[in-house]
Amino acid sequence: MKNELEKLDVYLKELGEIHPDAVGKVGQEVDDAVWVVGRDRVLDVLIWLKDKGFDLLLDIAGVDGLHLGRMERFEVVYILYSIKENIRLRVKVFLPESDLKLPTATDLWQSANWAEREVFDMFGVTFEGHPNLKRILCHHEFEGHALRKDYPMMGGQWCSSTRDLREDLDE
Amino acid sequence: MGVKGHAYAKDQAGIITTRIDEIVKWGRKFSLWPLPFGTACCAIEYMGVVASGFDLARFGAEFVRFSPRQSDLLLVAGTINYKIGPVLKRIYDQMCEPKWVISMGACACSGGFYDNYAAIQGIDQIIPVDVFIPGCPPRPEAILDAILKLHEKIDREPARKQKRVTD
Q1: What's the complex ipTM?
Q2: Is A151 close to B121, i.e. CB distance below 8 A?
Q3: pLDDT in tens, B1-24
Q4: Nearest CA in chain A to B116
Q5: Is A169 exposed, middle or buried (CB count within 10 Å of its CB: 0-12, 13-18, 19+)?
Q6: Which residue of B has its CA nearest to A164?
Q7: CA separation for the pair B167, B164 (Å, rounded)
Q8: Which residues contact A40 (CB under 8 A, 6 or more apart)?
Q9: Phi, psi of B90 (to 5 degrees)
């Protein structure tokens, strides 16, 4: 644990030399280090981290902070892992409700494809440049975004059509 | 067993006299071909019932088919959410009459503990159900009991009247 933090401090310093001020706040949440990054710098930071050995993108998570009373309502969290160094890192981006857009990370990690589709489906965040940005969990007729805090808990939507599996295979 | 009559003419081929309704119902209830629509852990429990331990073959419903065209018992085992709902409805529509539906487990019957936007709160909202089995998952004995209950129901129904196709 101590080695991880020291290693991350080294990374942070090295990153600061190439992309100064890219990482805003540095913290620790539960058991992982968190770097808060601005939206326009996130792709630079992710590219740099991948070169540094963060070869796995474990997941991309969305968070709706509707009732937290902060400036930006949404946050998107990239959970990265370096096999070589055995380090986990969360890169966090805050997004205002009025402009939910992020550049896609599918060019860096293949696993970003479905993870970004899930965040799009559940929170309505658009990932620009994504090859196939459509709903992954909810039915394609579903309207709204189910994990937003203002979506009603029992708001089931009756959907009637079935999709041919071949359509999905072609994509 | 529904077939009433007797064999006579000793030492020759036996003859059984019965009524057409009785023999049709007798044939139907002891040769149910189930289509297991398994989406969750209830389907695993169902496998245990079909296997030799509990041996569903004793009641004639062991011949599992995975095509709606070849089956007459739709056994819905597991959570049905709004996304798979249209698929379930379509599979039910593809089955030939006469057909029956068993809703197995808490999720299929009522949504179970998935009390949210994603899960349909009971499959009877989209297709008619003949027998509900409670439990999470139900014991194998409960599934055998449901098959026997369905036998009784088939016995009560008129054999030659077609069930109405749902809209």
Answers
A1: 0.78
A2: no
A3: 455 555 555 666 667 788 888 889
A4: A154
A5: exposed
A6: B87
A7: 9
A8: none
A9: -70, -40
